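Thread: Modeling a multi-component assembly for a lab meeting

Hi all, long-time lurker, first post. My supervisor asked me to bring a structural picture of a complex we are working on to next week's group meeting, and I have zero experience with this. I have the sequence lines for every component (1584 residues in total). Could someone generate the structure of the whole assembly? Inputs are pasted exactly as I received them:
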Amino acid sequence: MDASELDDLVAWWETANYLTVAQIYLQENPLLREPLAPAHIKPRLLGHWGTSPGLNLVYAQLNRLIRRTDAAVLNITGPGHGGPAIVANTYMEGTWSEVYPEVGRDLDGLRRLVRQFSTPGGIPSHVSVPVPGSIHEGGELGYALVHAFGAAFDNPDLIVACTVGDGEAETGPLEGSWKGVRFLDPRRDGAVLPILHLNENKISGPTVLGRVPDEEVHALLRAHGWAPAEVAGDDPREVHALFASALDAAYDEIRAIQQVARAGAHAGGRSGSGLPRWPAIVLRTPKGWSGPKVVDGKPVEGTFRAHQVPLPNVRENPEHLAQLEAWMRGYRPQARFDEHGRLIPELAALSPRGDRRLGSTPYANGGRLLRDLDLPDYGRYAVDVPGPAATRAESTRRLGELLRDLYARTETTRDFRLFCPDETNSNRLGAVFEVSERELEEARPEDEKIGPGGRVMEVLSEHLCQGWLEGYLLTGRHGMFATYEAFAMVSASMAIQHTKWLEGARRLAWRAPVSSLNVLLTSTCWRNDHNGFSHQGPGLIDTMISMSGDVVRVYLPPDANCLLSVADHCLRSRDYVNLIVIDKQPQLQYLGLDAARAHCAAGAGTWGWAGTEGGAADGAREPDVVLACIGDVPSLETVAAAWLLRRHVPELRVRVVNVVDLLALTPPPLHPHSMSDERFVELFGTEVDVVTAFHGYARALHQVLHGRPNAARFHVHGFNEQGTTTTPFDMVVLNEMSRYHLVLDALRRARRVPAGAAALERLCATQLTRHRAYVREHLEDMPEIRDWVWSD
Amino acid sequence: MDASELDDLVAWWETANYLTVAQIYLQENPLLREPLAPAHIKPRLLGHWGTSPGLNLVYAQLNRLIRRTDAAVLNITGPGHGGPAIVANTYMEGTWSEVYPEVGRDLDGLRRLVRQFSTPGGIPSHVSVPVPGSIHEGGELGYALVHAFGAAFDNPDLIVACTVGDGEAETGPLEGSWKGVRFLDPRRDGAVLPILHLNENKISGPTVLGRVPDEEVHALLRAHGWAPAEVAGDDPREVHALFASALDAAYDEIRAIQQVARAGAHAGGRSGSGLPRWPAIVLRTPKGWSGPKVVDGKPVEGTFRAHQVPLPNVRENPEHLAQLEAWMRGYRPQARFDEHGRLIPELAALSPRGDRRLGSTPYANGGRLLRDLDLPDYGRYAVDVPGPAATRAESTRRLGELLRDLYARTETTRDFRLFCPDETNSNRLGAVFEVSERELEEARPEDEKIGPGGRVMEVLSEHLCQGWLEGYLLTGRHGMFATYEAFAMVSASMAIQHTKWLEGARRLAWRAPVSSLNVLLTSTCWRNDHNGFSHQGPGLIDTMISMSGDVVRVYLPPDANCLLSVADHCLRSRDYVNLIVIDKQPQLQYLGLDAARAHCAAGAGTWGWAGTEGGAADGAREPDVVLACIGDVPSLETVAAAWLLRRHVPELRVRVVNVVDLLALTPPPLHPHSMSDERFVELFGTEVDVVTAFHGYARALHQVLHGRPNAARFHVHGFNEQGTTTTPFDMVVLNEMSRYHLVLDALRRARRVPAGAAALERLCATQLTRHRAYVREHLEDMPEIRDWVWSD
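Re: Modeling a multi-component assembly
Sure thing. I ran the full set together rather than chain by chain. Output:
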């Protein structure tokens, strides 16, 4: 690299540093054309300087790499609050002004640029949805690297540069992400280039990796399968030169690995296994590099004191003000911008062109790349239902067949993947293995359905599964995350953050819609009878129903054909987080294909065959009691309860309503799916009591129903945090959602006491007593462990 | 080690293997005194054989170590479902029968032992609460090692052996846990001895570490700061001999490190930094070791097929049955038990004695070691409140002073720690640093408040903070986890699992109560105005209120003195998960010490000074409207709204009710704190509308209130997933919880229209319009960014 190229890198870096500091401090005088005065300073100083010079260096260097190689590069910024740095760079390359024309490339634009930063009505201090070129929010730390891998999968031409701060490096999810390289196929996936940025300090003290000897940091990356190169120093020219060499070498190595692999053989380099060892860079620069060295007699540069605002009292303290001015002028703003406040052409030329710019790559605005999924007609996988509640099937197995054909249809487009923590087979989705293997680079001949190039992703980590999928979706592809219901809470926080991302993205016209995050919760609380209490928890429903209705949908299909209909809808949808809850065990089937299609489209409906009203409810006349059910096991118990009522108290008018689309129950206008109050009354009446069986935590349903006509008449039976190692039927008894509990509640709540009620009550009580005895004496008798279905 | 000692190890191991298999398969004939018949086999075969032989080896070896050294050892079993192995060992050592006398040490007891396993009414298939000697549930994977560290902190004599499976090793939290060694003080903490058990397979395929070359596994542990020793093989005697040497060497090294450190110097060994490198063991044995090698022509031992039940069809398939019998008889049950079914004395003698047994160590039943905290009188830290809503203070700062003195008082007992992801100072709890430093082994002279031996735990990982605390509590100590409200969701799943653990433990009389898990949520949604939307989320409340009321409490103190009272109560409590929610920013103070004490004891009360009724509400006469508030910012807005109403429509009778103890609102008998309906009516009336301001997600409150008299009259304003980078006041406006929104709602809901209502409505509308204009024009005007408090 010649000296002028190095000059260019440093010039870009200094300018970006300048704009970073300007955003943190200034509300006026953005180019210091006047002497700096207290009135130019924002009243409240927010922002994170410490990490920013490192991010600016990376950006400048990636720009050079792209110009040199014309590579497609996606930049993921882990260090949470390095927002002003990335904003500065996207402004310099022009993308910020293209996306936000009011922030133009002139003096007025610069004034708006600095004023908008971390200020009311402006933009957050961290990298976030409004930042072009980002698919990653730098708020909750831990997911940078897992998002990077998700972006790289099936994007063979892409290089994902991912800066990981040594703060984030302390989180569990980040530490778990390094192993992503074991799942990266050099033939068909792109590359991830981690840049572990060690500035050795967090908000108020040292980081763990900052205190670990160099050789241990490198050993850690090597042990995870990487080949790290070190770049360290505090002299800008020196560090830029070193980094440029390291980056060039990394790029060459990436291309070499890919070329060898794509020519039909894996490259050597990995000891023992013969797999490639991908390059990584360890960047060690002072925290707050090139900022104030000492403030009020205390060292700042290179310490935790540089984390946020290194000169805190600029408005009040003239010495701080002078220090700030000297610091900023040191970056020579007058030399970087012309008289109109426009970046000088020599600097502007250092940015790549068009969509190769990091801020405008379509990979960071995945909707631009998104193609509709070539979905097969889901009717092809339908269960034949000769009559309601007559046959049983494993509902998720049918979905597995649909996914299998989806894999086949996306064999060349490679834009769909299933992610699952080690349970694809267990969740009855194993049909996919007829078409695709599980991805693992270090496969052996004796393995079953495992190998490089596989597109089924299994790793025993909900964080990795969900994070990979998020990265995959945000770069314009499709997918599904299937997991145990209880352990879905492991990555609940990621679901929240992804929901918030989508909420933000929907407000920005320039962000094209992306495919929805589809989460299939199976192995549910009601059927984790054999695993016990720690495996029984439907809490993700609680988490998601509080999130924005613009984004969140919750579906509880009662059977296979409804699941197919719901899944088809979810896989076609955009910008949602779809929760689909259904168990994997054999279960009764209720609706034929057409009925299921209509039922799911409506979101909820009366099951005339299960109640006493037959085909059509009499709108003018409310039944004596309504039985409502939401979810597969609740539907089973409700249908059985209605059958008991029909048989034993035939004169009681009973209506059965099944709900698939949970949030359709939310009163309008709270959710786009909210059914009208008229429709609600059609289904549930206005005065009649509604004995409701709900899959999730019983009381959570009340927060959905509040505001509906006479909502207090809904009596919800649901999961009540009662569980143990037991039988499926005992689970519904323990939680008082069994058919007998529902019958007893229906008789208690019904508008009249039918003939036979007392006898039926006795019957139910007897059954429950027998059941309790059965459980109590079980260890002595050891009768068959069986699933009590629909019998009295 | 001589041959007879090796014989003993193998004999114990084979016997434990036998009992493991017996639990998985048998319901009768536990010692195979008859030929094995289908009727002896359980009707449903559940359990995990694959990991069990390794766990049995570890147990046998730890027994020997304890007998040899009299060391106090706690055994933590990460591999989730290895329950039958640990149960077998505790049975053999006698603790199972001591805890559960019905499962005696004879033939009948053996029959009960095998029947109870993973069967309805019995025990789960994974290591769980009922297993003596365990502080760790093997259900949700990822927390074994973090629990081990929590147990070791401040237990200088303890060695925590922690088996980590290669499945669990794939999770993010586990990968993040290795670094715990950087926080372990050899002078004052015990030791953690990780045993990374690589059997190379999970449920249906290879593990990542199982496929990584040996040297990379070792490099990974070395890079994390450990000195791993390898034990590998498939010949039992050979592996036992190797493991015994490795374990002896590890023990000697642990004691050497501790002796040197406790003599006043750190031991050498760590390259570069001079810190000790703690021993670890990598154990590589075949999955399902010593089980069937081939079943139905397919290899089983050493493959994923050995994960659960290696012979699946024993009842139906005579060949499988014969294979099972041969397998079991290979362990020679007839030689291990006497004619009464009692373990032969030679084997029984291999177990340690009394509380040195792994199943009966008090460290695994921490309540037995628990001492009451020597809490200072919290009144000492009270804020002086000359009158309600007259002064402001940072409430958490007062708590920090209490914690400081708690640190001082526990200087010698060392049984309290604060855990916080890097935010102790930011959360205004920094007073603790006057007494204790942050623990970090690799400290430097220039560091502030950081060093070995510190008891304030900061690491940028919610998983580590919470997991360490859980381990610390379950071994009989006290503590608090303070974290950002939004990012508390990162470890929400751990909070759920800990709650479930406590629910289970409360039902077992032999488990002595432990100190509560106290979670302080600060930096709340309402005051993360500057950070923006990703930092705004009160979701942990939603998660916790669905959990069991026997364990969960949620407190929202409105000010400093209430916080002190609540914290004092929580720190004294046992077996709870206490959520305390309060922001860290300067906030209005309402109650003097005595008033706060009484208010918190009651859980909720009328604030006469804020409403129109003065000192005492007139029980007989309902006000025109009730304003209820729950949380600090809601209290501020409610008090301001009441003030506006008093000033502008003085004839309107307004009552202000503040709620500290959220679940007191739950109708009885759902929560032990549920206030009676009489008390509820005293506070909220029966007919009057209640305009409620709630800290959390607005609609979540309805699930708490459902079932209270006329619950539909509660109109809740709360967090509504509206947020951005803005001002604190704009946050309450965006979520329609501002004083003006509350006033408008109160006027709309009040039982009569007072004189002046229209004018006040106009005033509110004007203020909101002005506010919207303020926000819209903000970037142009840049007025002071300020916190609008109590003014119109």
